[in-house]
Amino acid sequence: MMRRFHPLAAVGLSAALLVAAPAQAGKHERAESALSEAQAKIDAANKLGASGSVPRMQADAAAALRSARESLSRGKKDDAIAQAHQASHYADLALGEAQRSQAEAAQAQTGAAVAAAADAQEQAASAQQQAASAQADIAAANARASAAEQAAAAAQAQADAARAAPPQTTVTTVEETSRAASATTARRATPRRTVRTATRRTPVATKKTTTTVTTTQN
């Protein structure tokens, strides 16, 4: 016995199919949009580099995105949308961590640059002080050399003047005085006394002069 479909039932089924088709199409588009958004976030996180916990977050995001694609290919649009949102969440975490790591690295580099600049300024100041000290030493050495040259020139001039001067003659006169014995005087006593002869010598002064001539060569 064959069943006959009522025309009204056929009309109702057609209407249900017409209403469900746009809804299914809308979910597919939402799933595709969620997949695209998740992929863009994962690509942005990958461009910032991987350090710390970022690689693990990137791997979780990539795995969730693959699951979402598989679900969409099997027609599981709701699962695909949920998994795509999960992939976006992991990508957001990876992106934030990567940005934080980059900010910390930039801050560290800035601190190192400031320290290097300060060290360079200190070295430059020290080099300037050393250069000034070296210049002072050079000036003092030049002054000593100039004084030595002047002293040598003065000594040379004195030597030249001494060679050109005539020899000096020194005359030394020595006078020697001596006394010679005088003649003997005899006295006679009276007849009543014994005659004694007394001799008295009166020295006679004599002078002797000695002259010495000394010639000194310059």
UniProtKB/TrEMBL annotation:
| Keywords, in A-Z order | Signal
Stretches of Low complexity bias are at 158-188, 200-218
Signal sequence annotation: 1-25
Q: Does the keyword ATP-binding apply?
A: no
Region listing for Disordered, in residue ranges = 158-218
Biased composition (Basic residues) is annotated at: 189-199
Protein name per the record: Colicin import membrane protein
Protein origin, superkingdom: Bacteria
Source organism per UniProt: Sphingomonas gellani
Q: Is the Transcription keyword given for this protein?
A: no
